[in-house]
Amino acid sequence: QVQLVESGGGLVQAGDSLRLSCAASGRAVSSYNMGWFRQAPGKEREFVVGITRGSDTTYYADSVKGRFTISRDNAKTTVYLQMNGLKSDDTAVYYCRASAYPVSQASRPGYWGQGTQVTVSS
Q: What percent of the chain has pLDDT over 70?
């Protein structure tokens, strides 16, 4: 079992920055691919960014490229999402995910956090 706890959400203005954290605990968390999804009101949950185990290769949704950056600490138990240049379209609940499969494939087995709300006012 892996437990994921997100933090860092809040209310910001357009153009501001915010950093989300996802603390992972449990068995062999360093061996999981990790990433972030988001779900806006009335919309489906969508992939935002992922980071692979081992090589720490990162990959991003086109909508956030150049604005968001994912990283993980040396122990690989915490993943961070630095969000710059926030837009109103970024308003959503952000979920952390861990999976032994490519983290962008939400239908594959994995673990989810409880989510943290990010609201961007224009």
A: 100
